[in-house]
Amino acid sequence: MLKKEIILEGLDCANCAAKMEKEISGLEGVEFAAVDFVSKKLTMEISPKVNRTELNEKIEGIVKKIEPDVKIVFEKDTSKANIKENNEEEEEGVNKKEIIRLVVGGAIFAVGIIFNFQNWLELTLFIISYIIVGGEVVLRAIKGIARGQVFSEHFLMSIATIGAFFVGEYPEGVAVMLFYLVGELFQDIAVGHSRKSISALMDIRPDHANLKVGDEIRKVSPEEVNIGDIIIVKPGEKVPLDGKVIEGNSMVDTAALTGESVPRELEPGNDALSGFINKNGVLTIEVTKDFGDSTVSKILDLVQNANSKKAPTEKFITKFARSYTPIVVFGALALAIIPPLVIPGATFSTWIYRALVFLVISCPCALVISIPLSFFGGIGGASKRGILVKGSNYLEALNNVETVVFDKTGTLTKGVFEVVNINSQIDFTNEELIEYAAFAESHSSHPIALSILKVYNKDVDIAKIEDYEEIAGHGILAKVGGKEILAGNSKLMNKENIKYQEVETLGTIVHVAVDKKYAGNIVISDAVKEDSADAIKGLKALGVRNTVMLTGDSKAAGEKTATQLGIDKVYTELLPADKVEKIEDLDAKKSHKGKIVFVGDGINDAPVLARADIGMAMGGLGSDAAIEAADIVIMTDEPSKIVTAIKVAKRTRKIVMQNIVFALGVKAIFLALGAVGVATMWEAVFADMGVALIAILNAMRVMNTKSI
């Protein structure tokens, strides 16, 4: 499948976005389509065989049919800043026009209300005021009907207000349209402010790079810089691309990526990641990744595309809105016609007015705008804390977590191994044992291998290694200088029928054999992270029923760590395939709605991350494998961020449920009041635009995650 993105400039109707999504999803060759009202973007997965030109024409036809004023940008413009600026200028221009129309139309309406003119002059003033204020709404309603889009908010407002004129309620017809547009204006401002707030949360995209060419420094776009180029980062500037520091020392602010306020020091040889902000010194950096592959690009792409994976609640609200509006319209029609025919003394004008009130209340804007906005804000707020959530569906799923399964090394422990004991046999010295182990582990980047190489403290002559084989879950077989070296766990010794020395220790044991003869063992230990115990306590406080640890370590080492941290269950001496089996066993025992989270380092645990309901990668900063493998990426090495992620999810759901209950509750009350004649159109406007505005403002609260 090919991924395709289309920018929908000027998309200002959430209900229309849902209609576009439904129709585009049904096109031939389109496997998946999601229209995100908040970011004004259509994300699709399409078949490689589909004719792109024909598909683009069909998409443009659908968009223009539903929203003629939307401008479609098919090519993914790398300069997202330009689109953002154009959208902001466009919104400001539209707001100015609306304000002018409202002021002029409102002034004429006020004159008609205040002064006692003759009936024909008063009616003329109200009609002029109505045309100025609501002419565009009526025009858009007519265009919509011509294109087959009958049940739009413009149609509902036009019918309701024109109907008011026909039943003799001229001032009310104009006033309702006036207040509707005031509400629309405030709604647009609130949504615009929310969009800007979310954009500001992720405003980590660098504006430029200082490219060093000879003795000259050129200010260029980050996209123009290639791997191997040298860039200069001055104090106060963002690091524009991933690279290695070759000159200079400085403190850098990593908060945009990790959510951590404590600066870290960079010196020659350290990795500098795009999105870091240079605090004091000048850094000279050799670029190691193109801008498209850099950390900042991957993070931006993840967050901006997160809303294409919609939560079940969002999908429900979209379906609900599609059914709700036509039902209310036909209900209003019945309300206008049936009572005057069956109730003695009932007049058509009274019941038509009540039906018009019914119509004004029926628009589902409060829900179709505020719910996606809440989820998008939750994802943006989480990213500000260094937690990347790949979709609203994963954010919502975090509310139902029953079991959290942890990998041990690098997740609950620091992954910083140290050799604490060297036990050589009679025919070998400790130095020889370490040398053999160093040759065997020389090709590995595993923390255990690095700790052995660190103790060896010499350059390994790779030329001496004649053969090398990694045996999954067991260890390594290497031929060095004509000798066969085996280095690994007890399973490797048993597999090769080598008698080995049992060691009672809480560390990781690497057994070494030379030419099938046992040479001894090396004991390596790993320290538990400072906040691991707090993370386990925090999860239990949030209602997580089970905490489980899976490790390839010995039973003694695994059980000691589990006891130390308060973990409920531990499974030790596991191969990678065994971990998947354990996840499947746990999955079979969970409740219908319950979810299993697996937390690992994202590099060695890809199969388990994929098998769990929610795969969470720890320490994703700069790790491509972690970002690719997991559903949620924690950019730092802190297990406590798992608790933060669940808290953000719970707060998001709380605000979503508040908006659903509030919007539907108020509308139900006013629909009932309107039907019995208690509510007028004035109250109906509040039930529509007022509720939408309150719901949007409530949704904006989710972006503030500082107190979590």
Automatic annotation (TrEMBL):
Signal peptide segment: none
UniProt key word Aminoacyl-tRNA synthetase: no
GO CC field: plasma membrane
Domain (HMA): residue spans on this chain: 2-71
Subcellular location(s) per record: Cell membrane
Key words of the record: ATP-binding, Cadmium, Cell membrane, Ion transport, Magnesium, Membrane, Metal-binding, Nucleotide-binding, Phosphoprotein, Translocase, Transmembrane, Transmembrane helix, Transport, Zinc
Catalysed reactions, as listed in the record: Cd(2+)(in) + ATP + H2O = Cd(2+)(out) + ADP + phosphate + H(+); Zn(2+)(in) + ATP + H2O = Zn(2+)(out) + ADP + phosphate + H(+)
Recorded GO MF terms: ATP binding; ATP hydrolysis activity; metal ion binding; P-type cadmium transporter activity; P-type zinc transporter activity
Pfam families: E1-E2_ATPase, HMA, Hydrolase
Record-annotated membrane-spanning stretches: 99-117, 123-139, 324-343, 355-376, 660-679
Protein's membrane topology: Multi-pass membrane protein
InterPro entries named in the record: ATPase_P-typ_cyto_dom_N, ATPase_P-typ_P_site, ATPase_P-typ_TM_dom_sf, ATPase_P-typ_transduc_dom_A_sf, ATPase_P-type_domA, Cation_Transport_ATPase_IB, HAD-like_sf, HAD_sf
The family this protein is said to belong to: Belongs to the cation transport ATPase (P-type) (TC 3.A.3) family. Type IB subfamily.
Protein name: Cd2+/Zn2+-exporting ATPase
